[in-house]
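Hi,

I'm pasting everything inline rather than attaching a file, because the server keeps stripping attachments. The sequence lines come first, and each chain or strand is labelled.
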Amino acid sequence: MDFIIDASYLAAAILFIIGLKQMSSPVTARRGIVWAGLGMLLATIVTFGTPELLESEHFTVNLSLIIAGIAIGGGYAWVSGKRVAMTDMPQMIAMYNGMGGGAAATIAAVELLKAGEANPGAGAAAYLGVDVAILAILGAVIGTISFSGSIIAWAKLDGRLHLNKIVPGQHFVNALLAIATVVFAILVYFSVDVTTIAIFFALALILGIFITVPVGGADMPVIISLFNALTGLAVGFEGYVLGNAAMIIAGIVVGSAGSLLTHLMAVAMNRSVANVFFAGVGTGPAAAVSGEQEMKEIQAQDAGILMAFADQAIIIPGYGMAVAQAQHKIWELVQLLNERGVKVKFAIHPVAGRMPGHMNVLLAEAGVPYDMIYDMEDINADFKNTTVTLIIGANDVVNPSAKIDTSSPLYGMPILDAMDTDNVIVVKRGRGAGFSGVENPLFFADNTKMLFGDGQKAANELIQAVKEL
Amino acid sequence: MIEGLAAIYIFLLAGFTGYEIIARVPVILHTPLMSGSNFVHGIVLVGAMYALGISETTTEQVIGFLAVLLAAGNAVGGYVVTERMLEMFKSSNKPGKAAGD
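And the predicted assembly:
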């Protein structure tokens, strides 16, 4: 039986790697998740046959609890995962990721408690061995931080939490908390009594909350990706503790893939990972707009005419469009414009939406073919040959301060050069600053007109305007 | 059991594998891939099942149950959202069809 289980775990790990590899290309991506899913199913099923489980004194109770846990946890995730809107995907990923981190941490808790019961008063190493004890504790810290941090990330992205600061001198307090957590991690290593373990986990929980709260909204994807990598690492470490090859391989693969992905995302936003943690964008008061600049308003009818008679139009969609569920309407508008001979392109900033690639998913959902969708590098030179650019729900990714204003928090972030177009139409709900809380001078530029209103409503009006011509 | 040097080999090789998988991935797949890797670490479920399965005291059972609950959420949720996201890429592969409706 042991051999079958070990072989199945190895097979599962291989299936995960094949699955992830296939997910890295659009052609095979859909097959990839199925392969990985099969691996998971195989590993889960053979685990029921583990001899230690079957021989346990509490076999019936434990087995019932396992089945109940899978049914409740899995059932909740199944329903919520099926229901969640595409726009809310990032926070849902954060939530599931946090659950994984929490699971790794609780496994460590069980192992540490066992060590304490076996040798009261002794260190963790006495029961577990030096290597296992260290990795169990490391996995516990990482998993717990990933758990509480991911929950905060979920709450912030889901609009349930608007806090940017818990205490004055947050970064200093965070540093103290981090030190305290390390101290207790060391204490747990030398003496695994219940109180020490409890304080240790409580500290790690609070640390996760405290380091995530100050992170600015625009940086959330980087944090979620980082926590994803951390959970992978924690799972890998706990895999070593349990001597489980599938957990080690899958966990470490995710840990390293996730770290690289985090780095790529941070680069796309011109931020370093350290920067994300230690300086929240837009947490200070938003910079006042200099001079007495005014936004110039345009009516949907005029905007529609402008677009209908353009040679080429570029649409820059942002998260606001997706929130308003306007992508289907925008696609309808594009089809109308195409019929009139207007060439339309979609320009996607690397971090449009809430994560790299998120906007592509949302447009694909609406049925926009991907040969109309252009990356930043491919389209930036094209803006000056374009009659009109329609910006809907995007803000920071077209903010020219990122190029010219060294004092701007966005300075250095690559942007879409919408300001090079003859006419810029911005669909925006109100006059406020963007997601990052930074004012956008593009909105006050001479060639920019504002079309105020909800994305859905504005798109409808534009469609009407074009139809009536 | 995996110990000592063998474990270090596995850690290193798995690390390189993860790096290799991500290194040349197009931006449009970043989100689905993050979601996919989120699903993969749902393998923590087997560890959670094991931890609960061998638990002896009530405290261990409670914590172990929590572990299984959370891990199952990770695995199932990770699969469902990844699958849903990747499903979208089907329609964009056939633009003619998508534009027709």
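The longest helix of chain B spans residues 58-93.

If the labels don't parse on your end, tell me and I'll reformat.
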